[in-house]
Amino acid sequence: MIIQKTCTPESLFSDDRFSVVYRIFGNEKEARAKAEDICIEQTVEFPADEVPDGIIRDRVFGRIESFDRHDAESFTAVISYAVEIAAGELTQLLNVIFGNSSIKPGIRVERLELPEPLLKHFKGPRFGREGLRKLLNVPNRPLLATAVKPMGLSCPELADLAYQFAVGGMDIIKDDHGLTDQCCSPFEERVKRCAEAVHRANKETGRPSIYVANITAPNSEVRKRALTAKKAGAGGLMVAPGLIGFDLMRELADDSGIGLPIMTHPALQGSFVTSSNGISHGVIFGQLARLAGADATIFPNFGGRFSFSRDECKEIVTGTVEPMGHLKTIFPAPGGGMSLDKVPDMLETYGQDLIFLIGGGLFKHGPDLIENCRYFRKMVEAIQ
Amino acid sequence: MIIQKTCTPESLFSDDRFSVVYRIFGNEKEARAKAEDICIEQTVEFPADEVPDGIIRDRVFGRIESFDRHDAESFTAVISYAVEIAAGELTQLLNVIFGNSSIKPGIRVERLELPEPLLKHFKGPRFGREGLRKLLNVPNRPLLATAVKPMGLSCPELADLAYQFAVGGMDIIKDDHGLTDQCCSPFEERVKRCAEAVHRANKETGRPSIYVANITAPNSEVRKRALTAKKAGAGGLMVAPGLIGFDLMRELADDSGIGLPIMTHPALQGSFVTSSNGISHGVIFGQLARLAGADATIFPNFGGRFSFSRDECKEIVTGTVEPMGHLKTIFPAPGGGMSLDKVPDMLETYGQDLIFLIGGGLFKHGPDLIENCRYFRKMVEAIQ
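Above: the input entities. Below: the structure tokens describing the complete assembly.
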């Protein structure tokens, strides 16, 4: 053995550990071998028999806390890791959870169990459900959101849509996630016009609707766009963590110079959930979005043009609300191909604490956009 | 129809388009419907029948350039997009390529066809194959790389390994991707000691081996760590774009204040390639790594403890070297569970233009690390 010992003092490690619940596919022998492999692969990535006895083996290796049959084809392994190996960094935490194992077949991250000694490194959502409700002056009913689109319209045209949405009673009017800084609707002009349009509508309605600007952008542009949007009067920000990285979203949420609510968009994150080798809906759209500071998490609703099941959507809701130390609860925002007739079923599934995100459907209900919004809002108000 | 027209002038769009080759699973009718859906979903995300005639339909919609049977269960669709909708942004380019479609089952990005009018927005790799060979003074043979690990060793212990690797003839000595800023080996001390150790070895050997620091970190820490590493004498940087985002890597590569070669690590990117719903090995580890400025791309070698096939690895090699406008070619760096006996087979598969990345295997060959490195190097020198 080349490495005989280490002089790293044991006192550097606490007894605090966080756990990852993995679902592992295969027969029992294969699954157990994969669980043992995860303990090594996600930590030292080094031949276990070349690691000397002592602190690395005792403290750095992952540890199988439980291993049970899940169903005929898979097992559930709970594996714990020393809080210290995540180094208080969201990037390294993600790496420990699933970095190399993402490249191995038949392993799925089902749930995270993060104790306060780990969570203390993360502020989490700035607003959360309660903060967003206060901001929008909506104490009880579901929130109503929509998007300005399609790409290709000019800024005045998008702003006119934003105005109509706000007059019609939408609480949140966001950019479509494909609108960044294209020639047809450059970021700064779009944000100024749309924010102004929503403020103008608010003066007429007396409501505090907000315009949420999409600031998904090249890395060093993101914060600049956030500040531009804030200055222009945007009331919130949208980012796609699959495009900019979870940690940059966290920095935006932590940044008191910005201080706006954040919605996440699921772009490019689908591959994690659409296979048996990935990360569960509840973790990626629920727990991780929340850990990284989102106040609302957008995901495709069941029964729409995407493929999420009702149970998968419920799993996301669980991730937004289950106890996670000091982290605030956040809003699920199911959307994607929604239509008005799904509202009752959604209320039954999600309860009142959700954001209805309706896009193209608002354009299809009738010939008058403002009336369509009003119809939608009345329906939600009536049902609750 | 609520939106009757748009005043966006057609002159905003050139005739330049980029293309994405999608593999689409299903029968012909299903696959064709999915291809048509991609044209909408990846651009306007809006009911097509609510879009007025004119510029949006003509210029913003994706366009099916070809649609052919791939095999019994899938089809190949080449879909083109106006260069302008990517807005010169890597984040938005990724969004157009696969943002929402990542959430839909049975769609896989197989290849990108990016013309110079799009590529002109991206500098690409700073060094590339030629630059890295010059830096390391290795005109022809494969490069030799290894990693300091396991996590849990102290900085002096890691630095001692780095020294032995360099004396033994490794060209590149990188941090293990799990080493960030943990208590057992804090970033700044580790980088200083490891860089110093490699420089000391170089004085003895007369060779220009480099220490490559892992700077995968929280977003705003990344550039700071790059500068710390450079100041300490590191000769290269490693990042995991799956953890920090592709665009931040691009910024590092573009940054002349940094100016060091960049290696990518595949952590957390596995879910994209391990399912039929994702992105091909050649795109994510080849074309995208290169577009985002990597000089070398690390991926799991075939036949190791991961699951990539020889063909998938060859596909990555194609992505590193096929014509992509002005972008330099980059090094494939297959690794992961490699052992010395795989060297001949790898040379046959990859040719001379590769980086052999060997980690734990170097510890298993014999009891003397320096001798193990020398053996490995001699073998590679002899075979070519």
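Note for the figure: The first strand of chain A starts at residue 17 and ends at 25.
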